[in-house]
TrEMBL record:
Origin: domain of life: Eukaryota
Signal peptide: 1-18
Protein family membership: Belongs to the glycosyl hydrolase 7 (cellulase C) family.
Coiled-coil boundaries: none
Sorted UniProt keywords: Carbohydrate metabolism, Cellulose degradation, Glycosidase, Hydrolase, Polysaccharide degradation, Signal
One GO-annotated biological process of the protein: cellulose catabolic process
Pfam families xrefs: Glyco_hydro_7 (PF00840)
Protein name as annotated: Glucanase
Statement: the UniProt record of this protein carries the keyword Hydrolase: yes
Keyword Hydrolase: yes
Origin species: Lophiotrema nucula
Stored InterPro entries: ConA-like_dom_sf, Glyco_hydro_7, Glyco_hydro_7_sf
Reactions the enzyme catalyzes: Hydrolysis of (1->4)-beta-D-glucosidic linkages in cellulose and cellotetraose, releasing cellobiose from the non-reducing ends of the chains
The protein's enzyme class: hydrolase
């Protein structure tokens, strides 16, 4: 998996994150209930909700409505340094449907790709599930499964509807960083294994030091610091390709990085996190007819995705040994595709053996094993992780790593290069933002519970 640093709003009003709390727009979290199930298949409802990530929100002066961040640059008068910026600037509430194209009906949430609001144009979104008005819902999934329904029929080449877990602080960093006054209520504290530098506030301070505006994204930039943590990509997909991918780090919990630890550029494999991960993409693993329009898992209509986190001893405290994938569509249970690549044992799940064989066969650097493999992933899953739900386009490499031939100059017949049927010229953000603005993804019917308790087999 490649960088998610393109995950930014293009709010004309100013899409940025802050640490003080504004009062110009009331923050009301849309309700998105989920279910918790027992081994008997009996489920109870959890009254959860969602909040918008801080990076999308309006950032303005604490005493008025002047923007602290415009386009892809900071106001250097208000934000000469990180601490001063945190004191001067406030993060405000969100108009979820009007500004961000986020709507909820029952247990289903629709994320629109491009939303033209009264005063803004918004691109993509990232939200987190809340247990209360001020805390994220923490998922501890060892020896359990995570299930949801998804409709990706409205996601073309170049887009990614991602549902994943990251090891963020339960309160968004509110207690660890006194200068953070906004906390989880306003979507603060994001991190992932890409150690993204586009996060505007990290550890309660603005990421203004060394901030460089993006050359190809009018709303993005990168600061000196990154924000790292373990990441479990349960679902990264569009209508063409899908992947699930564990990523691990040598650090636990949200951690600010700088320099080599961030693993940027040529130091990709020297950082504290495994940016590549160990992915299972059915197309990349040799089954080109399993997922897509009219395929075994037919992306023209809604389907159910089940992800099981199996432990070595079958207990909730055991070591993570396997991550299994099952689909359900039209009342039929569909086992995950089996790998068909020479040199990789036929398998349909992620294990350490699978990952090691895949890395060797594809000629990829095995930082997943170096940084602890499934045992490290299980550590984070056991401690508790936050659920992120998003839709985004990719200003770095046009999402070709998910749905096309990547690297584009490599031989597509070489194992691991072909990831989907999208053209290598597809996914250019300026193109799809103009021509595919009505794209959307719908997530619904989220369930957690004991193995085989959240779906009918």
């Amino acid at each position: 998996m490649l960088s998610k640093t393109a995950l930014l709003s293009s709010l004309i009003a100013a899409g940025a994150s802050a640490q003080q709390v504004g009062t110009l727009t009331t923050e009301t979290h849309p309700k998105l209930p989920i279910q918790q199930c027992t081994a008997a298949g009996s489920c109870t409802t959890l009254n959860t909700a969602v909040t918008m990530d801080a990076n999308w929100r309006w950032l303005h002066t604490t005493t008025g409505s002047n923007n602290c961040y415009n386009g892809n640059e900071w106001d250097t008068t208000l934000c000469p340094d990180g601490a001063t910026c945190a004191a001067n600037c406030a993060l405000d509430g969100a108009d979820y449907p009007g500004t961000y194209g986020v709507t909820v009906s029952g247990n289903a949430m629709t994320l629109k790709f491009v939303t033209n609001g009264a005063y803004s144009k918004n691109i993509g979104s990232r939200l987190y599930l809340m247990a209360s008005d001020s805390t994220y819902q923490m998922f501890k999934l060892l020896n359990k499964e995570f299930t949801f329904d998804v409709d990706v029929s409205g996601l073309p080449c170049g887009l990614n509807g991602a549902l994943y877990l990251v090891e963020m602080d339960e309160d968004g960093g509110l207690s660890r960083f006194p200068t953070n006054k906004a906390g989880a209520k306003y979507g603060t504290g994001y991190c992932d294994t890409q150690c993204p530098h586009d996060i505007k506030f990290i550890n309660g301070e603005a990421n203004v030091d060394g901030w460089t505006p993006s050359s190809n994204d009018a709303n993005a930039g990168a600061g000196k610091y990154g924000s790292c943590c373990h990441e479990m990509d349960i679902w990264e997909a569009n209508s063409i390709s899908a992947a699930y991918t564990p990523h691990v780090c040598s650090v636990d919990g949200q951690t600010r990085c700088e320099g080599t630890d961030c693993g940027d550029g040529d130091e990709r494999y020297s950082g504290v996190c495994d940016k590549d991960g160990c992915d299972f993409n059915s197309y990349r693993m040799g089954d080109t007819s399993f997922y897509g329009p009219g395929a075994t898992v037919d992306t023209k209509s809604k389907f159910t995705v089940v992800t099981q986190f199996v432990t070595s001893d079958g207990t909730d405290t055991g070591s993570l040994s396997e991550i299994r994938r099952i689909y359900v569509q039209g009342g039929t249970v569909i086992q995950n595709s089996v790998s068909k690549i020479a040199g990789i044992t036929e398998s349909n799940s992620i294990t350490d053996d699978f990952c090691n064989e895949q890395k060797t066969t594809f000629g990829d650097t095995n930082s997943f094993e170096k940084l602890g493999g499934l045992a490290a992933m299980g550590g984070a899953i056991g401690r508790g992780m936050v659920l992120a739900l998003s839709v985004w386009d990719d200003h770095a490499v046009n999402m070709l790593w998910l749905d096309s031939t990547y690297p584009t100059d490599a031989d597509a017949t070489k194992p691991g290069i072909a990831r989907g049927t999208c053209a290598t010229t597809s996914g250019v953000p300026t193109d799809i933002e103009a021509s595919q603005g009505n794209s959307q993804v719908i997530y619904s019917n989220i369930k957690i519970g004991a193995l085989n308790s959240t779906f009918s087999s």
